[in-house]
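hey m, so remember when u said the tokens were messed up on ur end? i reran from scratch. heres the input so u can diff it against urs
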Amino acid sequence: MPYFFFSYACANAQGVADAYVSKFFDDLVFEIQQKAQPPVPGEIGFRDWDNIGPGDNQPLKLIEGLRTSKVFVPLYTPLYFTREACGKEWQAFTERLVEHARISTNPQQLPPLIMPVWWAPVDLQKCGLPESITSLKYTYDHLGHEYEFGEKYQNEGLLQLLQLDDSDYKKFVTRFAMRMREVCSAHVLTDAQALDWRTLPNAFRPTAAPTAPAPAGPGHVEFLIAAGCASQFAHVPARQACYGDRPENWRPYHPQFVKRIGPLVQATAAAADLTSLLVDVGPGLRDRLRQAKNKQNIVVLIVDPWSLDVANIADHLSEYDELDLWNCTAFVTWNVDDPETQQKSEELKQRVVEIFENKTAPGRGTNSFRDDINSLKKLEGSLADALVQIQRRILERGKVMRKSEGERDIALSQVQGPGGVTPS
């Protein structure tokens, strides 16, 4: 079990540059080896060139290091964030942090076990990185004077200090190693069960450019996809084939049907002459639902019961459960031909009830929640019907609102009684 995983762009360690990368790696290993208490048994630093020999399976070796290392040490350079392999390494370690946080007392706070090194200055904003990466601190001045790395480190990077044989380099190494020992003692990260290098997404993939505002009115649908990605099911390898690198690539009825949920629901919307947008379930769901209501858009939530405990999806879905919006509906899909789903059926259904406590309460109608979507045919048919019904509901509500705003043409309130609907 390596103490730390050393992540860097190989091009930053070729030729003359390797001497500098190797020196920092060796110095960091020395600091941990000599000063960690209790002493670190076995391997201290994992570096691909040192740990992967001729004939070794490189991805398997990398996965083993990422699966078991206590700390992740990335060397920030302009090249680093352009390398897909580095993005996969970051993603693999981040998933371990997410899982650690999920079972901790503070699931919203990831442990500080990614410890960046400002190797060479880079404009992170120009890299198009997710905010979760750009907001990560690469200095520790906020922790107190004993953690200050110096202005030259912040302005010029650690590589420059090494090249100039600057005394601030030694200060950095000792203080960085001290902080590493502290976070390792405070946060004991368990090993990941399994990881699949092929399906790991690139954490550095540029964030999508801002899209044009969704059109207002009932001619537009927002599909909220509550599903995970293949890499998040490393602990259940048999399920990974049902997922891709994005929630919309989930195949709810795999292997009988290979249709991906994103194209499937958008094709159903297009057949009803509706525009549509695919949206991940994440932070800000409540605000998004209310905005869609104000714009009179249709909203459909598609839920994968297997994904309810993946990446805090359940935490966000509770926001849907608390709201009762007339422009929304939700479908929970079940693959009844899948042996694993059959075996875990009661457990999965109980999880659905726990998360959707209000929507599954006895006596509730099925307008805003359907948990019986057990086939591809039923999904396509029920979705087509729901889109028409919600669109009609929005249009009719709009007519009533317009009439009530007029000076003379005021809609009478409607009372449902045994004899039908009568004006009151």
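this time it looks ok to me. The domain at 4-199 is CATH 3.40.50 (Rossmann fold). if urs says something different then somethings off w ur setup not the seq
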